[in-house]
Amino acid sequence: MKDILTLGIESSCDETAAAVLSGGRTLLSNIISTQTPVHRKYGGVVPEIASRKHIVNIMPVIDEALAAANVTLKDIGQIAVTYGPGLQGALLVGLSAAKALAFSLDVPLIGVNHLEGHIFANFLSEENLEPPFIALVVSGGHTSLVKVSDYNKFSLMGETRDDAAGEAFDKVARVMGLKYPGGPEIDKLAKEGNPFAIDFPKALRNEGYDFSFSGLKSAVLNYLNTKKLKKEEVNNADVAASFQEAVIEILTEKAMSALNSSNLNTLVLAGGVAANSALGQKLKTESKKRNYRYVSPKPALCTDNAAMIACRGYYQAQAGIVSDLYLNAEPGLVLKDL
Prior knowledge:
The chain is 43% helix and 19% strand. By secondary structure, it is an alpha/beta fold. It folds into two domains: 5-120 and 302-318, 2-Layer Sandwich (Nucleotidyltransferase, domain 5), CATH 3.30.420; 131-297, ATPase, nucleotide binding domain (Nucleotidyltransferase, domain 5, 2-Layer Sandwich). Helix 4 (114-125) packs across helix 10, helix 5 runs parallel beside helix 7 and helix 6 crosses helix 8.
C-alpha cells in the first residue's frame, strides 16, 4: 500500500513554508520563504508586514513544494497546518489556504500546535527515535521542558516565566548593535570571547524546571550602560560569550535534572535556538557524560518549517485527531495532551 502524502503548511511568524511528506518520516520537499531581510531594518518582526508578505508568498511556496516533490494536489491525502501559537494575522493566512485546499480536495484537515511541530522535527532527523523522551524546546517565543510519553501525550514540566531564550538573544544582540536576527550573531561573536569573563546571573537555578531570562537581559544592559558611563572599553566578544554561557548553563542543568527525575535516557532539542552551536555541543557533552542519548534536528529543521508540521500532522491523523473547517487561529496556544 502506498504511503499517504501529507502537505504541511507553516506561517506562524515570518517564514512562509510548505512541505510534502510521504508516510511519517520520508520528506519529499521542504520549501521556506523567509522574510528576515524585510524585518531586519526594523530590528524584529512587524506583524502587519509579516501577514501581508504571507498573503503574497503562500500559494507560490505551496506550488514550489509540490513541484519539488514531483506530485500534484490530486496526490495529497491530507493537509497539516499550524494554527498556533504565533501571530494572529500570520497564522490566519496559512490556515485559510489549508482550509480552502482541504475543502476543495475533500481531504482531512489537521490543525497542528507549532511547539509540538518543533519537537517532531527530530523524528525527521533521527529515524530510530521513539517516545518516551524529554524535549527541550528553545525558540524565539518559547522555552519549555516537555515530557513526551507518546506521540500524542505531552506533559509540560517547566517553561519560561518571562522572556524566552531566543527573545533574550535578540534583545541583547540589539543593545549590542548586532543585526537581526540576533541569535546567530551572538553565537558567531561568542566564539571569539571568553565565556567566563563576566559573571552574569542565572535565575531560578535551583527552583524546579521553570526558566527566567529577563533578569539576565537586564544584567547585560546594566553592564553595558555602566561601562559607557565610566567610558571604559567593552569587549563585545566577552559579553556575547558570557551571556550565551549563562543561558546555556541553565538550560543544560535543568534538562539533565529533568532526565534524571523522570528516569528517561533520551533528550531531544527543538526550536530555532537548537541551531546554536555552543548549546548543541554542551548538551551533547553533558548527555554523553551521563550515558544519555542526545538528538537534535538537522539545521534546516531547527527554524520554522513545514516539514515538522507535516510530520506532527501525520502522527495526529494516525490517531484520528483531525480538525473541521471551523478551525481558527489560536495565537496563545499551549502544549497539551490530545
